[in-house]
Design goal:
- It is built from four helices and eight strands.
- It is of the alpha+beta class.
- It has one domain: Tetrahydropterin Synthase, Chain A (2-Layer Sandwich), CATH 3.30.479.10.
Length: about 160
């Protein structure tokens, strides 16, 4: 027989005969196009090409970035949400897409003026921007696909 009960104090929910710990992860996917050049200014073009290959092209090149933002926390007993995904979508739009989409990251996004715009560094920058705006009780993880096969994840610290 199905029954449903919530213990508010313990953040536990009982469905059927299982008692669940209510930590759940919600995800929002987003997309942006951007150009970049990977290089270390201390190295000459030959050394940059050796390390970064085609990504060190001095004339830049673009990627179709796929961003996945994951937020983990307790399920609010009032709403049934970890976080309102409408709010998360707007946050990603305002904090990330407005600044990055259809931009040259090296030339047009100030944080990358002296920071190599690798997928690793972009994911950390995105995490920093979102962390400030998301409830401290929620865990945040950012996954960034630079190509369908190459992707990075940053969870803070
Ligand atoms: Ni590249």
């Amino acid at each position: 027989m199905f029954f449903w009960g919530i213990c508010y104090g313990q953040q536990l929910i009982k469905t059927s005969k299982i008692i669940h710990n209510m930590k759940v992860t919600v995800h929002r996917k987003a997309h942006f196009n951007a150009a970049h050049r990977l290089f270390n200014p201390k190295w000459d073009d030959a050394k940059n090409f050796e390390i970064f290959g085609k990504c060190s092209n001095p004339f830049y090149h673009g990627h179709n970035y796929e961003l996945i933002v994951a937020v983990t926390g307790d399920v609010d007993p009032e709403t049934g949400f970890v976080m309102d995904l409408k709010v998360l979508r707007k946050l990603i739009e305002n904090e990330v897409l407005k600044e990055f989409d259809h931009k040259n990251l090296n030339e047009q996004v100030p944080v990358f003026e002296n920071l190599n715009p690798t997928a690793e560094n972009i994911s950390v920058v995105v995490w920093d921007k979102l962390r400030k705006a998301i409830d401290k009780n929620l865990e945040l993880s950012v996954t960034l696909y630079e190509t369908p096969r190459n992707y990075v994840t940053y969870k803070g610290a």
